[in-house]
Amino acid sequence: MRGSIFLRLTKWTLVFAIGLFGVGLTTAHADGVFNVVGDFSNGSHLSGQITILGGVITADTLAITLVAPNSFPFPVPGPLGQGADGSDYFADFTLNSSGTSSSIPRLVLVFPNAGASLATYIGGSLCTATSECTGDSSFYFISDGEFPSFPLLTSGTVTAVGTPEPATLVLLGSGLCALGLLRRNRQSAHA
């Protein structure tokens, strides 16, 4: 009798864990860490990471390495929002904590077809000088004298960094434990 109750409990635990794991897969969201790389028209290179939480970029560091041996880290996300036509998403990065659009140096990354936020963004190409992003391109400038002949992004990608969520690991572990207990119980019942 006791083995029968334990067996039922183990089966229901396994079914529950599989159900929660399935729900976790279908309700996945775009929050996470993304690697950003790209090249600009003057030979500068873009590399770094951004973190997207709740559809908004949080403060991580991006670094632009210029043609000369200069490097600018852009740790502060500034004004964020939609482009003029409402389809592309603009993210400004600055060096200082004021985070205003007049801050210099300034980096502007344009995410194609992202809409009002990055809530569903899962990675891909950035808007470049040669892409079809309604005329928008990612760019940077380090002084007012460069405007409007600043370097444009010629190639750029954003890729998700694969890190499993803690809840997924807990569910996977509990499912494996339930399978182990089920197998152990079956072996002891046959012995």
Textual characterization of the structure:
- There is one protein chain.
- This protein has 191 residues and is of the alpha+beta class.
- Helix 1 packs antiparallel against helix 2 (166-190).
- 26% of the residues lie in helices and 32% in strands.
- It has 2 helices and 11 strands, in the order αβββββββββββα.
- The chain has helices spanning 2-26, 166-190, and strands at residues 32-40, 45-53, 56-58, 62-65, 71-74, 76-82, 89-94, 106-111, 124-125, 139-141, 153-160.
- The two termini are 16 Å apart.
- Residues 25-29 have low confidence and may be disordered.
List keywords for this structure.
elongated, alpha+beta, 2 helices, 11 strands, single chain, 191 residues
Class by SSE composition:
alpha+beta
- The portion of residues forming beta strands comes to 25-35%
Task: Tell me the Rg in angstroms.
Answer: 24 Å
Mean pLDDT: 74
**Biggest β-sheet: count, sense, barrel?**
7 strands, antiparallel
Short précis:
The chain is built from two helices and eleven strands; from the N terminus they run αβββββββββββα. It is α+β, with helices and mostly antiparallel strands and 191 residues long.
Summarize the topology:
Layout: H1 2-26, E1 32-40, E2 45-53, E3 56-58, E4 62-65, E5 71-74, E6 76-82, E7 89-94, E8 106-111, E9 124-125, E10 139-141, E11 153-160, H2 166-190
Antiparallel strand pairs: 1-2, 1-11, 2-3, 2-4, 4-5, 6-7, 7-8, 8-10, 9-11
Helix pairs in contact: 1-2
